[in-house]
Amino acid sequence: MENYWNKEIECMSREDMKKLQDERLVAQVKHVYENVPYYRNLMDKKGVTPDDIKSTEDLHKLPFLTKNDLREAYPYGLLAKPLSECVRIQSTSGTTGKRVVAFYTQNDIDLWEDCCARAIVATGGTKEDVCQVCYGYGLFTGGPGLNGGSHKVGCLTLPMSSGNTERQIQFMRDLGSTILCCTPSYAAYIGETLHEMGFTTDDIKLRAGIFGAEPWTEEMRHEIENLLGIKAYDIYGLTETSGPGVAFECSEQSGMHINEDHFIPEIIDPDTGEVLPEGSKGELVFTSITKEAFPLLRYRTRDICVLTREKCSCGRTLIKMCKPMGRSDDMLIIRGVNVFPSQIETVLINKGYSLNYQIEVDRVNNTDTLDINIEMKPEQSENIPAEEKKLASAIKTMLGISPKVHLVPEKSITRSEGKAVRVVDKRKLH
Ligand code: ADP
Ligand code: ZN
């Protein structure tokens, strides 16, 4: 039987949800217009007033916000409440540049933790569970978000943070952790270490994992599920919209339900900004309709994604987003060709190679170089030069440019305790 944290909201009829969104949006636009001069300016420039926004149908009239706006307005420029009413600051991981900061009132924290509680309950979580949180704590939102959600559900919470993997496993065994929360890269690392330490899944009580904060594939899901003997669920979020818990996976494990009572999603064409119909692939945009301190309207996430309203077997009516297919700004331009790390990953998956890989880009004598290091599986170590050639040619077919492929020994690529570092760009172009 499916479990819900807030059944009324999670299974609300489309009509009622839309009504709720309409009301909240109208109020939120007023709140922002009155309190955030930076956004008021953008609205004025576009000739839109709060009176023009009467329902979600009018959303498209509002200007977008981008990460650049956040950087420009850093640190207080998008704050909509007096600092005296804010109780927390969190910050992005800075994956793609200068970090941005987000502010929270107590109410913002409550709603955020509530979203994380929904994610935990969707994996079958109850107060009987022992929830081991090894996302990073501190400025990063992963640890604090799931920690708070776990408290709300009433799980016994283990605030481990990331790192010290052997101790993670010792506590997992000694204290009988049943739910694990961390990045998928770190989950795979914990799984590998468990087996290296001579244990099997029989030695732990884990039953579910909630993994997010970075892109991961279905193959990686299966690998982690096997290594740890669990069901692995995806969770999505970003600091700008609060943190993890914007969307979460249910028992169907086919995309994440977006908490639409707090966030209205849109998919746009990243080049033209045009709103695309349901089912189209494009850039995900969120409007926070309940946040008080840092309420971003039409925030461009740069995550490439598809939304669907297809009926879900879990009974939830919340719209679903697919796994993000990388970020529009993950794109590397190598010798003038657009390259997404996910394209290289697809080739590795199709050809049965390890997903422990790292892409290195450099510039030598004014020419870009592309080196890809991939860990070998035992069966691939027979004729290394031939394997490397085969793989280089498959990647060339996919990308249109030739990489240098290096098969490297198992475990030689540094494992990540947080978000995986897939690309090392040494060109210093920015
Ligand atoms: P940064 O942008 O510096 O990494 P955050 O720590 O706030 O800052 O990370 C948010 C980003 O992480 C998202 O925009 C998205 O690109 C990525 N992300 C989060 N959850 C997932 C997920 N489940 N799948 C894929 N990508 C994710
Ligand atoms: Zn579902």
How would you describe this structure to a colleague?
The chain has helices at residues 7-10, 14-35, 37-46, 67-72, 106-122, 142-153, 165-174, 184-196, 218-228, 341-350, 384-399; strands spanning 86-91, 101-105, 130-133, 156-159, 179-182, 208-212, 231-238, 243-249, 256-258, 263-268, 281-288, 299-308, 320-321, 332-334, 337-339, 357-364, 367-375, 404-408, 423-425. The chain is an alpha/beta fold. The strands form four sheets. An eleven-stranded mixed β-sheet has the order 4-3-5-6-7-8-9-13-12-11-10. Strand 6, helix 9 and strand 7 (231-238) form a beta-alpha-beta unit. The longest helix is centred in the first third of the chain and has 22 residues, at 14-35. The chain is globular, with a radius of gyration of 22 Å.
Main sheet: strand order: 4-3-5-6-7-8-9-13-12-11-10
**Strand proportion:** 15-25%
Q: Number of helical segments?
A: 11
| Largest sheet report | 11 strands, mixed
**Mean pLDDT across all amino acids:** 95
Rg measurement, Å:
22 Å
Structural class by sheet pairing and helices: alpha/beta
Helix content: 25-40%
Give the beta-strand count. Answer: 19
Would you list the SSEs in sequence order as H and E?
HHHHEEHEHEHEHEHEEEEEEEEEHEEHEE
